[in-house]
Write a structure and sequence with these properties.
The complex is a heterodimer of chains A (110) and B (147). With 110 residues, chain A is α/β, with parallel strands linked by helices. Chain A has one domain: STAS domain (Transcription Regulator spoIIAA, 2-Layer Sandwich), CATH 3.30.750.24. In chain A, 40% of the residues lie in helices and 31% in strands. In chain A, strands 1, 2, 3, 4, 5 and 6 form a 6-stranded mixed beta sheet that branches. Chain A is globular, with a radius of gyration of 12 Å. Chain B is α+β, with helices and mostly antiparallel strands. Chain B is built from 3 helices and 5 strands. The longest helix of chain B is centred in the N-terminal third of the chain and has 21 residues, at 34-54. Classes of the chains: A alpha/beta (110), B alpha+beta (147).
Chain lengths: 110, 147
């Protein structure tokens, strides 16, 4: 898993590339919680190059979005591959995350 | 005709990569749709992670057997996976379904792995046999989403 971070307007865009599984999910969780801790309230997760996510990765996102929402922030996900989108749908995550076709659309709604 | 491969792994999460290479090779060999290979990898990841993380009361090394086969008959063709471990009895078909319609603050963090397995596979059966958990997963070979 690789994470690249950029800022645009008042939002942080986190591009997550590769696999988020039991061995890499803690790293993603820490990164997200770190951003929230340092005051970020608008986070867009760019999933264009996210190839795989298991329940460990879903849990990391859930922990982060709970923390972010409790702080009055918002998280959006953009550009999910179809198989990844199906995983999110099955996990019931499509109702608690704002999911957009791409990062620009996600930023536009923040 | 049935075509079958098997792999034996230790109860060590580092082994998961070896399993996923086997699944990828199996998928290539049988020309399985990309979605099917993706889902097989995911469900095996979930099942094996559960076995390795919760299945054993000791810290000893254990062997887990994974068998993959393609059943062309009867139609429709399907992939059958069998996971056999000697851990404590655990029947994933009896696990509780997590509450997936609660608001985010109340959304449970656990139970997602088994839920994904149940939804992505077309059949899931469990039996306890001679001190082993034997889990059978079936996935019809087609490209359609399960949800």
């Amino acid at each position: 898993m690789e994470i690249h971070e950029t800022k645009q307007d008042a939002a942080v865009i986190l591009s997550v590339k590769g696999r988020v599984d039991a061995s890499s999910s803690a790293g993603l969780e820490q990164r997200l919680l770190g951003l929230i801790e340092s005051g970020e309230r608008r986070i867009v997760v760019d999933c264009a190059q996210l190839d795989y996510i298991s329940s460990a990765g879903l849990r990391a996102l859930l922990v982060a979005v709970k923390r972010l929402n409790a702080s009055g922030g918002k998280m959006a996900l953009g550009d999910l591959k179809d198989e990844i989108r199906e995983v999110f749908d099955i996990a019931g995550f499509s109702s608690i995350f704002s999911i957009y076709p791409n990062t620009d659309a996600a930023l536009g709604k923040m | 005709m049935n075509k079958r491969v098997a792999i034996q792994v230790e109860n060590d999460l580092a082994e998961l990569e070896r399993v996923s290479r086997l699944v990828d090779a199996f998928g290539a060999q049988h020309d399985l749709p990309r979605r099917v290979v993706f889902e097989l990898n995911l469900v095996l990841d979930e099942v094996l992670t559960n076995v390795m993380s919760y299945g054993y009361a000791d810290t000893r090394q254990h062997q887990i057997i994974v068998r993959l086969s393609v059943m062309l008959e009867p139609h429709p063709a399907e992939v059958v996976i069998e996971v056999e471990d000697d851990g404590r009895p655990f029947d994933p078909t009896e696990a509780e379904v997590p509450a997936l319609d609660s608001p985010v603050e109340e959304r449970p963090v656990g139970g997602l792995g088994i839920h994904l397995v149940r939804q992505l596979m077309d059949g899931l059966t469990y039996r306890r046999q001679q001190g082993k958990n034997v889990l059978l997963l079936r996935r019809v070979i087609d490209d359609r989403r399960r949800l």
